[in-house]
User: Fold these one by one.
Assistant:
Number 1:
Amino acid sequence: MRKSDHRLDKTISCPVCGNTDINYYVKKDDYSFDNCNNCEFIFLNPMPNQTTLNKIYTDEDTKINGGYKKASSRLRRAFIKLPRFLPYVFNKSSLDFGCGGGFVAYALSFIAKSSTGVDINQKAVAYAKKKFNGVNFYCKDFHNLLKSKERYDFIHSSEIIEHVSDVNLYMNALSHLVNSKGYVYVTTPDLGHPKVPKDITKWDVLCPPIHVQHFTKKTVTILFKRYGFNIIKFYKNKKPGLVFLSRKL
Ligand SMILES: [Zn+2]
């Protein structure tokens, strides 16, 4: 049963948990979010399709033409994170899923047996290929990735899941690409963090249609379990961001 007149499309169940107890949540910049009362998932309704979202990122492409801003600090931050990844990546195959300009994939290449970066953004991948040696960079979408025969022991996917139109397609791709017993490290904004403003519209991270959905610990736990992942660790974060490591069963 529909609970709200605000719901515009025909989706009547939560994309994360399948529950039908969905309510109108909030509106920002003419975009309307719903929330699932069961798993706390917050998502745009109607949800723009991936083609529409990709067009919005064309602006990002234009910026990349002149190179990434703060490229050296991006690279430094990528290297600073390596000790965290070392136990799961050392001498293993790694993939940065949504690699952008390739900073993390390049840093991972120093500890992994092999390092790959994949992104939907052609200009980002072209930039990464030109800038970094020793990494396999590919421009592929979810459908291409689902046909891939490559499997990875470790997948890094930072600040991607909140952008994708179809969260189940994203999870299918992750699940397809990771080796059995492999690790997946994900970061995304944390809607359940105490530092998130009470008036959610004041939160600059709530920025539709750049971010089309939001998660809490509960949401990602339910979502990843559905795809055969066990979340083995949530990292402490003073900022409102979820940072977690999961393992494929
Ligand atoms: Zn749900």
Number 2:
Amino acid sequence: MNRGEAGAGRRPLRVGVVGCGAISKRYFAAAYDSFEVVACADLDRGRAEAAAEAHGLVALEVEELLADPTIDVILNLTIPAAHAPVSRAALEAGHHVYQEKPLALGRAEAADLLATASRTGRLLGSAPDTFLGAGLQLCRHLIDSGAIGEPVAASAAFLCHGHESWHPDPGFYYRKGGGPLLDMGPYYLTALVSLLGPVAAVDSMARTTFAERVVTSSPRAGERIAVEVPTHVAAVLELVAGPLVTLVTSFDVWPPRYATFEIYGTEGTLALPDPNTFGGPVRLLDPGGNWSDVSLDGRPLQQRGVGLADLAVSAMSGRLPRAGGELAHHVLDVMLGVLDSAESGRRVALQSRAERPAPVPVGLAEGEIDP
Ligand SMILES: NC(=O)c1ccc[n+]([C@@H]2O[C@H](COP(=O)([O-])OP(=O)(O)OC[C@H]3O[C@@H](n4cnc5c(N)ncnc54)[C@H](O)[C@@H]3O)[C@@H](O)[C@H]2O)c1
């Protein structure tokens, strides 16, 4: 991963958005001093124009936006199949890139993205950035300070009945690059790697319960989607540091009574917040069997866009972005390893590794990013 250009100035980086769909509104609303969104583009020109009108931006064609030398960063919010091609073109055009998850559809595409960032000297970052929020940063502090002793195991489950009940255009969730693991797994896995370190090997089983899905959300209600990916995936991960993680992701079942995301240590248990959020609650169980809520301690909550804000600061200061390409690459490698294991019936040893990103210092104001 490249470092940014130390001393490159302190003006907010100028961001151009590619992909003005459902999630883009969250990024348009993000308030961080290190970047400003100035332009947008979409294959669907009408969507780009509507976003430009709503947020005071310039709507451009994708090629025009990528060719614009006044843009510092491309924020790639396209669907999974377009992540790597759009990010690669943006890096080649000389822009830094921050994109939505997953990093790419396959290992070769992902490796090529990292190599392109390295060759062009541009920064590459990827969602999720929720691990930079107050809740998961507090968990990082608790684990690093020994609050649960030595981590032994963790368990995580994301269970729902699919996104076709609410997303306006849910087809991509059932094509390559979608499915519950590649869609929701990044939140759990990025949090776990940032808390406990990288994954060494995986084993799993998976199934596809429904061969097609019927959309119930507007405007595509009644349309049928052929399912091309496993939609219930049960995995065991062995971390390099030793803990074993059970991870289940599903689009096939109705939501459970209680969400599961816990880390078990020799001295206690840590109940983590929903990793698709930035806040709490964070709860600790001590060896006496007592649960307590741990205060977020005045840590900045953060919001979607903090990973991009952090990357923009990196571009100015020369430090590594926390939600960087190597972390996203490792998380993708873990997920692809899980799918490979389910298909082959064999344990898969992973080739990639990622460092735990630096913790966010305590005491920052809301919206402030450390240099
Ligand atoms: N919707 C959510 O709640 C949500 C939450 C977190 C992350 N995400 C992620 O964000 C990404 C986008 O999701 P979404 O829900 O906004 O999808 P969406 O389908 O609503 O929007 C995607 C947009 O990208 C455009 N697009 C597709 N290919 C393109 C290309 N090659 N060039 C330019 N534009 C292109 C589409 O026209 C569309 O407007 C996905 O990777 C998804 O996993 C979505």
